[in-house]
Design a protein that fits this description.
Length: 236
């Protein structure tokens, strides 16, 4: 009996064009891509290649000009803005280059915020936030605001927040770009560990060779097309 592989993301014929004055500029040119459940994948390519555009379309932050995008079996392209917001809240975790933490909230409150939007009861969301901060080794720092955390600690809070809602996939856009080498290595190790112990799917747009070396799947996009897609049995 053949095992059926669950695809968390399915892109079929995805194109994206932008208007610059009277000029139509293609950013994506017919992307076909599937991301399997449990993938730990990097998406690389030169600046302007389309990787961030593709990540934003998968995350429901942008819409394709043409084509089909499914996340966890749900077709995105016909959803209203409100329905897309609900899908982002419940099925997609985001980790951004600039952390995007709320400055006036503590680490714990930043992680709780997503759960509050989902309507979780205060005691339940507080327990989940503390659980996730423990998972990212931030015990004892729950009550610190972002300004009192290092860049690496802020990015760990962002990872905890992304995972708090138990999403189908975590999308990370240049997650190590603002970190020094040691902190970046620690973050990659943390995300790899979380992928392995919980099975959460990661797709990371990155220029960082350290991230690429640690992923089990490496996708390269050039001029809006998939140039290569390499699977590795293991990563260092």
């Amino acid at each position: 009996m053949t095992n059926v592989v669950a695809n968390i993301v399915e892109c079929r014929g995805v194109t994206k064009h932008y208007r610059q004055g009277a000029i139509d500029v293609p950013a994506l040119r017919g992307i076909d891509l599937s991301i399997e459940k449990g993938d730990f994948a990097s998406l690389a390519g030169p600046s302007g290649s389309g990787k961030t555009t593709l990540l934003n379309i998968i995350g429901g932050l942008d819409r394709p000009t043409q084509g089909s995008v499914k996340v966890d079996g749900e077709e995105l392209t016909g959803l209203s803005g409100e329905a897309l917001a609900d899908l982002r809240l419940t099925k997609i975790g985001f980790v951004f280059q600039a952390y995007n933490l709320i400055p006036v909230l503590t680490a714990e409150e930043n992680v709780e915020f997503i759960l509050q939007l989902m309507g979780e009861a205060p005691a339940k969301r507080r327990a989940r936030a503390r659980e996730m901060l423990h998972e990212v080794a931030l015990d004892g720092l729950e009550n610190r605001r972002p300004a009192r955390l290092s860049g690496g600690q802020q990015q760990r809070v962002a990872v905890a927040r992304a995972l708090a809602s138990r999403p189908a996939i975590v999308l990370a856009d240049e997650p190590t770009a603002n970190l020094d080498s040691k902190t970046a290595e620690d973050l990659i190790t943390l995300m790899s560990h979380l992928n392995q112990i919980s099975g959460v799917t990661f797709l990371m747009a990155t220029h960082d060779s350290r991230v690429i070396a640690r992923t089990r799947r490496h996708i390269v996009i050039t001029d809006g097309r998939i140039a290569s897609d390499e699977r590795r049995n293991s990563a260092g």
